Amino acid sequence: MATMVVLGSGIMATALSFPVTENGHEVRLVGTHLDREIIDSIQKTGVHPNLGLKVNENIKAYQLEDVAEAFEGADVVMCGVNSFGIEWIAEQFKTLLKPGQKLLCVTKGMRADEDGTLHLLPTIIQNALPKELVDQVSWNAIVGPSIAGEVAVHHDTCVVFCGHDQDDLDYLADMFRTDYYHVWTSLDFVGHETGAATKNIYAFAAGFAKGMLEAAGKENDKYVMYNYSSAVFAQGAKELIHFIKLMGGDPNTGIGLGGVGDMFVTSMGGRNVKAGTFVGQGVPFSEVRSVHMKGVTLEGVAAISVVGKALRALTKRGVIKEEDFPLCRFLYSVVEEDHPLEMPWDKFFANLK
Amino acid sequence: MATMVVLGSGIMATALSFPVTENGHEVRLVGTHLDREIIDSIQKTGVHPNLGLKVNENIKAYQLEDVAEAFEGADVVMCGVNSFGIEWIAEQFKTLLKPGQKLLCVTKGMRADEDGTLHLLPTIIQNALPKELVDQVSWNAIVGPSIAGEVAVHHDTCVVFCGHDQDDLDYLADMFRTDYYHVWTSLDFVGHETGAATKNIYAFAAGFAKGMLEAAGKENDKYVMYNYSSAVFAQGAKELIHFIKLMGGDPNTGIGLGGVGDMFVTSMGGRNVKAGTFVGQGVPFSEVRSVHMKGVTLEGVAAISVVGKALRALTKRGVIKEEDFPLCRFLYSVVEEDHPLEMPWDKFFANLK
C-alpha cells in the first residue's frame, strides 16, 4: 500500500482521495493557509464543508504547520491547489519534495512571459526547484472531465493520467482505478495539460446564452439558445486544438477526454459559466468582478487574462497570425477591456475546406 | 429574387424558410402525404402547429397534389423530409427535379448495403435518378448545430453549406444569410454529411445519465452525472471523426460546426435523448420503442440500427477492426438486442499517445 500526500485541500484534491483510499492506500490531506477551516472541519467531523460530504476514514487531515510530517515517506505527492496557488506551492516544494517521489498535478492553467511564451503550470513548479531535484521527481498530471463531487459520490468518471514514464503512469493509475474511476494513461503530457488549461477559457463563454435570454426575459421560452452555445463550443474546440499544436502537443489529444470531453463538462456549469452569464445579461465584466462575483475564484477568467495577453505578444512576434484564436481574443477584450458581447462570428471557422 | 421549393414541411425545413423569405425570396412549402394537417393549418392560419409559430407571409404552403405547380420555375429545391422519407422523396424527384436546379438537403442519415458499405442520403437520391439528371443538378446540404425553432425565432445560428461547386454554395449562402443566420461554405461535402449523420447516433447516449439518476432517485442531488455524459461525448467525438475518415471526408471537419458543434446541440435534448433516458432508467429498448415512445420518429436510433449493422459487416470484410467504434457497436446492441446499460468503458479511448 502506498502513501499519497496532498497539498491543498480544495474539493478536487479531496474528491480524488476517495478512490485512492478505497483502494487501501493512505492519504494525507494538507490544507494551505487558506484551508484552515476545511481542515478543522475534517479533523473534527470528517466533513469537507465545500464538498458537502464526509471523507473516507483513511484520509488524514493536516494543518499547514504539520506539512513536513505529512510529507514524511510519501510515495506520491499531489499538487492540489488551484492555479492561483502555483507559485506558492512551488516555494513549498523546494523543501518538501524528495527525490523518488511521484508528483501528480491537478492544478490547471498557464503562465506567460512578457514576450508571450506560454508555460504549463508544472513547468512553473519545475522552474522554481533545483534542476537536480526536478530530474529526480516524476512529473505527472490528471486530466479529463471530472466534477469533483461526482467522483466523491462514485459516479462514473473517465480521466487520463499523463506523464513522461509509462511505468510511473501505470503505478499511479493502479492506485486510483476503481469500478467508477476509469483511468487511461498517456505520454502526451503537453497536449493533455494544454487542453485542460485552455478548456477553462471557453467555459466562460458557455454562460453567455443563458444571460442573454435572461436579459430578454426569454429564459423560459420554448426555444432557448443552444445553437449559439454549440457554435461557441465548436469554435472553442478548434482553438483548444490549435493551442495544443502551438504548445507542441498531439492535436489528437483534443478529440477525447483531454479536449472536447473536458470542455463539455466545464460548459455544464460552475463559477466561470456563472460569470459569463452576467456578461450575457449585459453587465460589464469589471462590474462582475468587483460586485457580483467579488472574491470568487475564477480560473477560466484568469486563463483568459494570461493567454489573451500572450496572444497579442505572440502575434507581434509573428509566432501566430492576427486571425488565429478569434474567440479567445474576443473573450480577452470582454474581461480586460469591458468589451460588450458582440460575438465576432465572421472571424470564426476560418480555413474550412 | 429567387424561388425555393421545399418538399417536406417538418419543423426544420419550415424554420429554414424564415431567413430565406426575410431576404425577400419566395418559398413554396409543400407537405408530404404525412403533412396534410400542417399545410392545412398554414393555409388557414399561417401557423405551423409543430413549430408553434406563425410562418412569414411570403411562405406559400401547398398540399402534395399541387407539388408540380410548386416546383414550376424554382431555382432551389430543398429536400426537407426526415431520413425515413428519403426513398419516397427520391421517387418524387424523378419527375419533379429539373436540370439547372440547386438541391439543398437538410435530411441527415445513412443507408447501408448488405456488405456494410455506407451511403449518405444524397447518394440514395442520386442512385434513384437518371445519371444525366444527376449531373445537371447541383448537390448541396446544410450542416451544423441548428435547433429549428431557434432559427425561426432569430437566435444566432452558425451553419455550413457544403457542396461541390463554390459558386453554387455562394449563391445559396447569399440567399440564406441574415444577421442571425451565419453561413459558412465548404467543399468537404462527404465530411460534413457524415458528421451530421453520425452525431445523431451519439445523441441517444446523451440521455443515459439522466435516466440512471432518475432510476436511483438522485436526479435532484447536488452531484449529477456530467462526468459520465462528458466521457460519452468524448468517445462519440472520436468515433464521429473516425466515421468521417472512413467515408473519405476531411477529419478536420469533425472539429467544428459539422462535428462536435452539431453533436453538442443534439446532446442538449430532443427525442433521441429522451429515448436514451428510458434506457438509462433500465427499460429494455424494445419496450421503449413499442410502449413509451411508440410511433415517435427516432432518427438517431435509426442511424444506430443502420450503421451498427454495417459495422459488423465491415469488420467481417476486414475494412475496419473489431476494436473500432466500440460505442456505436454497444449502442447497436442496446437498440437491437436489448443489451442492458453496462457501458464498455474499457474499450473506449484506445490509441492514446
Strand content of chain A: 5-15%
User: Could you give the order of the helices and strands of chain A?
Assistant: EHEHEEEHEHEEEHHEHEHEHHHHHHHH
- Span from first to last CA of chain A? 53 Å
At CATH level 3, the topology of the largest domain in chain A is Rossmann fold
Oligomer: homodimer
Q: What is the CATH level 1 assignment of the largest domain in chain A?
A: Alpha Beta
Number of strands of chain A: 12
- Could you say what the CATH architecture of the largest domain in chain A is? 3-Layer(aba) Sandwich
Structural class of chain A: alpha/beta
Name the CATH homologous superfamily of the largest domain in chain A. NAD(P)-binding Rossmann-like Domain
Shape annotation of chain A = globular
> Are there runs of chain A of 5+ residues with pLDDT below 50, and where?
none
Give the mean pLDDT of chain A.
Answer: 96
Give the proportion of residues in helices of chain A. Answer: 40-55%
